[in-house]
Design a protein that fits this description.
The protein has 377 residues and is of the alpha/beta class. 35% of the residues lie in helices and 19% in strands. It has 12 helices and 10 strands. Strands 1, 2, 3, 4, 5, 6, 7, 8, 9 and 10 form a 10-stranded mixed sheet that branches. A hairpin with a 3-residue loop joins strand 9 and strand 10. The protein is globular and about 60 Å long. This is Acetyl-CoA acetyltransferase.
């Protein structure tokens, strides 16, 4: 049976809205990580069968197949193809899954997967252009619910009984863990400096329940979700190289992790953000791996209520959940986030010799991806 391995994983710093990456075109930001893959591995781009790129807001600077223009911006041969995929916030993770599937099927031998989002230039929701993407039948099916993720996060908090203080404590912990990781150099080896930016810009040191209490609710007047316990609007890109163990040996590349299993699920589109719970169970069953065997979990912090609900439902060890902080502190460049999280997780696994890592992402519309990887020897 064919195997798929990841032999390289790099990312840009995650820039805050209007920060150091805001003036970088998404194709050029993508080119930075593609170029870094070549620089760090010695890989000949001619060997790449395809580039699969996640991007959510495919309009303006990110329109017209940004995956293809990333290849050209990187100066890679015109013969290297590129395509763009959109599974909402899980687009970068889905790009990785598609890359793995093409390698496992034997259609390709070496594929680059990743994603980009420059939300400073292409704001969240701009791709809708005033339209109603859900359509009247969907709205009627769900009693004209607005399908607003913030309202869904509020519903999750209410269903699981999370107080604002509990959510804010989780948010403060995200910043604390991210700051500790950054100071310890945990991200240094995976980051490609761009436009003079060398480190993630979103970390707010000294965040606490007390400082977060000053912020007004964002979605409901009496709500518990606000800018401080939600993911940040961000800019960033990331890329990974997927191939077979045999092809890796031929190219002189050392596998970082083996792909063990992937899963995608649909879930209630009103709660919308609870998909990581069934996705986690599904991927563990497929791999035959127990929850307690997993050394690190990356559950995207779209809103604090999402990983907290996941934690409550799975019973996972909270110390293994987002140990480097998450999107509340480090940002959420939509189409890139799946690849960014996987990059962070792989480097963390190797630094701490953790056998298994599991990543899962909630996604707009009520879907979720989960991916399980195993440390390569």
């Amino acid at each position: 049976m064919r195997e798929a391995v990841i032999v390289a994983a790099v990312r840009t710093p995650v820039g805050r809205r209007g920060g150091g990456l805001a003036e970088v075109h998404p194709a050029d930001l993508s080119a930075a990580v593609l170029g870094a893959l070549v620089d760090r591995t010695g890989l000949d781009p001619e060997a790449v069968d395809d580039v699969i790129w996640g991007c959510v807001s495919q309009i303006g600077d990110q329109s017209s197949n940004i995956g293809r223009y990333a290849v050209l911006a990187a100066g890679w041969p015109e013969s290297v193809p590129g395509t763009t995929v959109n599974r909402a916030c899980g687009s970068g993770q889905q790009a990785l899954e598609f890359a793995v599937q093409s390698v496992l099927s034997g259609q390709h031998e070496l594929v680059v997967a990743g994603g980009v989002e420059v939300m400073s230039r292409v704001p969240l929701g701009s791709a809708r252009a005033g339209g109603m993407p859900y359509g009247p039948r969907v709205r009627a099916r769900y009693e004209d619910f607005s399908f607003d993720q913030g309202l869904s996060a509020e519903l999750i908090a209410r269903k699981w009984g999370f107080t604002r203080e509990r959510l804010d404590a989780f948010a403060a912990l995200s910043h604390e863990r991210a700051a500790v990781a950054q100071d310890a150099g945990a991200f240094t080896g995976e980051i490609v400096p761009v436009a003079g930016v060398e480190a993630d810009e979103g970390i707010r040191r000294g965040s606490s329940v007390e400082t977060l209490a000053r912020l007004k609710p964002s979605f409901q007047e009496d709500g518990v979700i606000h800018a401080g316990n939600a993911s940040q609007i961000s800019d960033g890109a990331a890329a990974l190289v997927v191939t077979t163990p045999g092809r890796a040996r031929q190219l002189g590349l050392r596998p970082l992790v083996r792909y063990r299993a992937g899963a995608v699920v649909g879930s209630d589109p009103v709660l919308m953000l609870t998909g990581p719970v069934p996705a986690t169970g599904k991927v563990l069953r497929k791999a035959g791996v127990g929850l307690s065997e997993v050394g690190v979990f990356e559950v995207n912090e779209a809103f604090a209520s999402v990983p907290l609900a996941w934690l409550a439902e799975t019973g996972a060890d909270p110390e293994r959940l987002n140990p480097l902080g998450g999107a509340i502190a480090l940002g959420h460049p939509l189409g890139a986030s799946g690849a960014v999280l996987m990059t962070r997780m792989i480097h963390h696994m190797r630094a701490h010799r953790l056998r298994y890592g599991l990543q899962t992402m909630c996604e707009g519309g009520g879907t979720a991806n989960a991916t399980l990887v195993e440390l390569a020897s």
